[in-house]
Design a protein that fits this description.
Helix content: over 70%
Number of helices: 4
Strand content: under 5%
Structural class: mainly alpha
Low-confidence stretches: none
Order of helices and strands: HHHH
Distance between the termini: 11 Å
Length: 137
């Protein structure tokens, strides 16, 4: 189980770099949300300063997300693999995909961010839902 947590944190670092890329690509469509966030919580900060802060916070956040997924996988993992959907544990992969859709689904509904978000959801699900179980096994 410890190896699953450590591996999850390492994959979280990979997800962090991809998340920063998603924000950069989808920033045009995310600007209204970021501007609302800036006005509400950081009224004196510029949008650039907010982006820099979000990028710095994501360095801590995504490895933590990966470690939590690793812990869940380590506790959930049965004695033998349950292959399905190309994953050693298909219910875990579906859980990760559902989580990604819940977290980022509203950005899939916007035409400005639809393509970049669909790619991000696929990468998120692929990293945590498929790579994590395969690397742990």
């Amino acid at each position: 189980m410890t190896s699953a947590v450590i591996l999850g944190a390492a994959l979280g670092m990979l997800a962090n770099s991809l998340f920063v890329g998603w924000i950069a690509v989808a920033q045009k469509g995310l600007t209204p949300d970021l501007e609302t966030l800036r006005r509400r919580f950081f009224p004196n900060a510029t949008l650039s300063a907010l982006m820099l802060g979000l990028t710095g916070a994501s360095l801590l956040f995504w490895p933590l997300v990966g470690a939590v997924y690793g812990l869940i996988y380590g506790l959930w993992r049965p004695a033998g693999p349950q292959f399905g959907l190309g994953s050693p544990l298909w219910p875990f992969s579906l859980l990760v995909l559902a989580t990604a859709l819940i977290l980022f689904g509203r950005f899939l509904l916007r035409p400005q961010t639809r393509l970049a978000t669909a790619l991000w959801v696929a990468l998120y699900s692929g990293i945590f839902g498929w790579l994590l179980p395969w690397f742990v096994e």
